[in-house]
Amino acid sequence: MTHVVAPVVENIYEEVVRRNPAEGEFHQAVREVLESLAPVLARHPEYTELKTIERICEPERQIIFRVPWTDDRGEVQINRGFRVEFNSALGPYKGGLRFHPSVYLGIVKFLGFEQIFKNALTGMPIGGGKGGSDFDPKGRSDAEVMRFCQSFMTELYRHLGEHTDVPAGDVGVGAREIGYLFGQYKRITNRYESGVLTGKGLTWGGARVRTEATGYGATFFASEMLTARGTSLEGRTVVVSGSGNVALYAVEKATQLGATVVACSDSGGYVVDEAGLDLRVLQEVKEVQRGRLTDYAERVRSARHVAGGSVWDVPCHVAIPSATQNELDADAAARLVRNGCIAVSEGANMPSTPEALAVFRQAGTAFGPGKAANAGGVATSALEMQQNASRDSWTFEHTETRLEQIMHDIHARCAEAAEEYGTPGDLVAGANIAGFTRVAEAMHAHGLV
Ligand code: GLU
Q: Are 317 and 368 part of one and the same domain?
């Protein structure tokens, strides 16, 4: 199936590019959604009339701020902080913070834009936003990370609130950073406002399963796609890219569901182990020591480390890209297909390039786009907000059951929308259409705001 962009949609896209120059990732994310919307506009002329798409492409508010802090040598450092409050039609702005040297406005906007539709797909009352900084936590001491987080929150706090904007983690922001950010928010506001951040520690308002949720969710989504095709994860070979929070818990869940995860990666290369990766050692190396996969290979005798190279060279039935945007290109996609890959579930945000997507489409590979497949993270954040609001704390089992049901429902929503709008089985179109229509209906109800 070819993806022709209707002229009206093409015009909107061109205007987005003109108004937001040099933000390649944002353009890519917008284009991917707009490509799916022509049939929706044909059925809903009011969205054209009320410029619903144009409004969705323009963030409600964008905050850019200076983050000064002092490193351990006493030297002054200046970073740039961002929060893009994209859309609040369905609830308070919700989305993570990314601390990585590659962060600039275009990255934050692509992530924020994706977040609108992802959050809508969860069926929960959360709007879309994203933030972060070009701060690089790599090699920084805990004290430096703390001072940076405190300075970051000293500006950001005035824009947040449990009913206004609720950040969480993303690349480079985990439980440690959320702790420092929460501490500073509490100190400045003199309020123990648990619901203002998610991904908190379990002893101070955090939710069980939140740490595991994105990786678990992406694996549940892979399992849903396979079930829809009359098969399962049981006995399958899986490759996961990355070795952060998403990757680690995708490894755990895929293994629990009877698959063998044979490889994962970091910026230095990848490890392969045909016998299956050892989660405990991975956790020890990555979460406790903040080390490298070379350390993993030194500790596990059956594992082999490959420096450089692409983890997508490793044959598998199911791929769960969980590292970062545009990590999987057309070449890698073609290799995966050639090696027998039948399903791809995106744990990261926009890890497949548009060209890779075209390869998977052509090959008929089951494909779960990030905004659907990795929505388990933010969905569990919404469950954390729910527990905070009722001052309750649920068990691991209860929360995981909720997550599994949510992933099942997201898959069903995508599949139904794809079917309804004439592209059965195309979960990319289904996710975009189902996410968009939920947001558009709420915006329509709220009038021109
Ligand atoms: N950063 C995650 C995402 O991409 C989680 C956001 C959240 O929990 O608010 O969806």
A: yes
Element (H, E) at 148: helix 142-156
Beta strands in 134-197 (DSSP E): 165-168
Ligand 1 pocket, residue 95 CB under 6 Å: yes
What are the tens digits of pLDDT across the range 262-313? 999 999 999 999 999 999 999 999 999 999 999 999 999 999 999 999 999 9
Q: Pick from 158, 192, 226: which residue ends a domain?
A: 192
Q: How far is the CA of 119 from the centre of ligand 1 (A)?
A: 9
Asked whether the beta carbons of 276 and 260 are under 8 A apart, the reply is yes
Q: Is 130 a catalytic residue?
A: yes
Q: Is 98 within 8 Å of 171 (Cβ atoms)?
A: yes
User: Phi/psi class of residue 326: alpha, beta or left (left: φ > 0; alpha: ψ in -120 to 50)?
Assistant: left
Question: pLDDT tens, 59-104?
Answer: 999 999 999 999 999 999 999 999 999 999 999 999 999 999 999 9
Catalytic-labelled residue, pool 94, 130, 186, 286: 130
124 lines ligand 1 (CB under 6 A): no
Q: Degrees (nearest 5) of the Cα angle 246, 401, 320?
A: 25
For residue 243, is it within any domain?
A: yes
Domain interval for residue 93: 59-192
Coil, strand or helix at 288:
helix
* pTM of this prediction exceeds 0.90: yes
Q: What is the pLDDT of residue 5?
A: 67
Do 290 and 315 lie in one domain? The reply is yes
